[in-house]
């Protein structure tokens, strides 16, 4: 593991066919965290770059015998390993448009005109140094996120796999109960068992989908034809809303090509919250959608307690909760809506809420058609 001082090192390659120019540049740009590598030709520069993967910036003279700066830059930009290294051309050529354009076409990100102005040169190099560390931090963060995602996927796989055995036992027991005379002859018990059988079957399918999801990367996950109308009705039914809460559809919902499990997660969470927090004697939950061209704009509306104005942005942040209490006394972790936000944004859409306290809330989200 690299230490803190190594992480702050910034390596600059100085390329010029005149040694005195290299000395001037090094003295001008000297700083405690900077390391300098020097080359007197284009060929020498290429050899040094291929041996050193820590170079953050190249100060490249344009006019050199043999291979000039333009040729060096073109070779670097054609190599996947070196194409992202920032290059500043240092040139005595008159700053005419044709030379500037040729430099940018070759892969330069900036120009410095000889004789060098020390203040301008230092300022530009400072900017590229900051950019280098920002990019490095971003790359390190992406690697860390990828590592965490793999751990989470592995965890989801293990948990889902371990749930299959007890669930199979439950399904077996329910199938036996279905044929028991005590159940067959009692219409109320028979209805409850049928509901449990359906819920168990749905749960089995969900666990299978989660296992499949955890095995595959985002690009490999199955895009399938999803009847949103059927998905919402099935999801609402299996949430077993209490008798005082009516769940309805506002018109027919579309059939779309999407990743079913993700869309199901969004609807299940929003409908569940609308039921769980509804404090009215006659609760109403309405689900609908509007075609918005590239997206469908879905909504889940309720006549519950509403969301305070100051909470309407914050509830989508991780671990943020409102003062609303669930009717069944369940507690909220403040995680669900943040996960929904990530799922929706993964589709290129957004999620938001419109609400009046005491009157209810409407959660909207955009979902790409394909």
Keywords:
Rossmann fold; 5-stranded parallel β-sheet; 370 residues; 48% helix; Helix Hairpins; single chain; alpha/beta; 5-stranded mixed β-sheet; Heat Shock Protein 90; 11 helices
Per-chain topology:
Blueprint: H1 4-7, E1 10-15, H2 19-29, E2 34-39, H3 42-51, E3 55-61, H4 69-78, E4 86-91, H5 97-106, E5 110-113, H6 118-178, H7 181-184, H8 187-215, E6 224-227, H9 228-238, E7 245-249, E8 255-258, H10 260-276, E9 283-292, E10 295-302, H11 336-346, E11 351-356, E12 360-368
Parallel strand pairs: 1-2, 1-3, 3-4, 4-5, 7-9
Antiparallel strand pairs: 6-8, 9-10, 10-12, 11-12
Helix pairs in contact: 3-4, 4-5, 6-8, 9-10, 10-11
What would you say about this model in short?
The protein is of the alpha/beta class.
Summed up, the domain count is: 3
CATH topology of the largest domain: Heat Shock Protein 90
Main sheet properties = 5 strands, parallel
Radius of gyration: 31 Å
> How much is the average pLDDT?
81
Return the CATH class of the largest domain. Alpha Beta
- The CATH architecture term of the largest domain is 2-Layer Sandwich
Ends apart, CA distance between termini: 43 Å
Shape: elongated
In CATH, the homologous superfamily of the largest domain goes by the name Histidine kinase-like ATPase, C-terminal domain
What is the ordering of alpha helices and beta strands?
Answer: HEHEHEHEHEHHHEHEEHEEHEE
Spatial order of the strands in the main sheet?
A: 2-1-3-4-5
**Beta-strand level of the residues, as a percent range?**
15-25%
Task: Give the helix level as a range of percent.
Answer: 40-55%
Number of helices: 11
Q: Quick one: how many beta strands?
A: 12
Assembly context of the chains = single chain
* Secondary-structure class: alpha/beta
Low-confidence stretches: 1-6, 329-334
